[in-house]
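Example record

One chain of 575 residues, shown exactly as stored in the release files.
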Amino acid sequence: MQNRKAPGSRRMDRGARLALVLWMGMAACLAQAAPLKFRSANFKYVVDGKPIREVLRDFGASQGMVVAVAPEVEGSVVGKFDLTPRQFIDLLALSYGFVYYYNGAVLHVSASQGMHSTLVQLSYARVRQLRETLERMNVSEPRFPIVYDEIANTALVVGPQEYVDVIREISIQLEKRTRTGGRSVTRIFPLRYTRAADRPGTDGEVQPGIASLLQELYNKGGQGNSGAGASLLRSERSLSDRVAPALGSAQQESPVDTGSLALRRTFNIQPKPATAATTGGAPAGSGAGTSGFAPTAPAPLAGASEQEEREDESLPVILPDADGNNIVVRDLPERMPAYEALIASLDTQPRMIEIAVQIIDIDDSALREVGVDWNLSSRHLLGGSASSIATKATEGGLLTAIIGNSGQALLTRIAALEQQGQARISSQPRVATLNNIAAVMSSEKTFYVKVPGYQSSSLYNVSAGLDMKVTPTATREADGYRIRLEVRIDDGQVSTTETVDSLPTVSRSQIGTQAFVRQDESLLLAGHTVERTEERNSGVPLLQDLPVVGAAFRQKSVSRNRTERLFLVTPRVLD
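Predicted structure tokens for this chain:
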């Protein structure tokens, strides 16, 4: 009877000696760390054309273990073997391109192209706990190393389906134990310098407090409390985006619920048809042949009850205590140190900044005597001193200038013109504010207009005057403070000479600009022209009141005065 050798047996004859030599180099480290234990120290076996599935079952029977062989593992074995059990099983794996995994009860054998991959994302436990648990249970297999990411709190598992399932189940149980053992706690974080609750701003807008900032940071889209937070979702997606290209093209992912259990990112790797590249002598568990894997869409992991998921979706809860200026946080205990560090970094003492403003009215004809050439945009010397001026024309005819020495040289010139009646300082408000908080200076006049109605009359108020808002933002640099100024000026005047339906008119002008100045520098704003018209009646007493001839004894004169209004803004950081 003629014996025929299967293709697998011929490959066995050619590569057995070389495979055995390659295996001996790594046998020492594998034999110590692997959980697989054998009954005998030596295994002798003679076979001639027997299917590989039956050979593996014979090997399992001799070692007292159950062997489950996948249908994809095929071939015939021919040879005479006198090796240790570890050497025998590894030699077959190298020659026939399969991988094996022993879970303590069953030795699972599957084709190398049937490797699977799972990316485990932990929400409650840490990857350090997962690593320690796997080592303590003697589950981790050095032939299938697990890649841990401490920052994203993830673990990438690649190996046979049975090995991946065991790691996945342990991760679920670890998450459940950590979650039930560390239920949510409530802590109060007192604030010293910043505000916990939102507050109305000077311009009617709401200034967000620390509580709103934390809610925006940790909750989905800043709207309500929607679970573990957008930061965990972003880290989960970023790591998976890095892993997916290495595994293959994944299908389009459906939206992920941030409140569900965070062991979501699981890739079920399906084998492609075997090729020569994936079957030709790939080492067992070496990862060769995994380049043909194609991950499908991630499937959510089970393990969290519906009640637990609903409870987790309510975390974190962040509320402000306006009366005590505290932040109240309810979340898991392991997340509290992150809240404490973030709140401490936000609750810092702000700098105090003094804003001094000089409002100067100067005759248009005397403007050039101030010493500022508004037509130029270079730097100039003011009065021959070391004070420098940089000017710039902005939109709407507004002129700005940066003046050194706190504008003292300019104020000296204004004082000289004031003695000549060509200039005057109409107001000098001064106010201190916090860094990045608007300082408001307002001076207005209000009169009431009676408007008759059908059955009654109503009074409507009309206000006009100066309303100025300055927002400073100071940053420390190597050569001193650099201050950003946001200036908004609303200047209105009530005209007594121009009326509409016997009512006075109100003229308004607005100025808005931003600039950077250093300590001991001033921002000079110009381009706001004010025209005043004055009427004077003079005459001879008694005679000017006579009828007909009285006009010869009285005189009416109209004078028009055009002045330029300057705003000199000087910030100073109060250390």
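Notes: The chain has three domains: 7-96, 115-346, 352-574.
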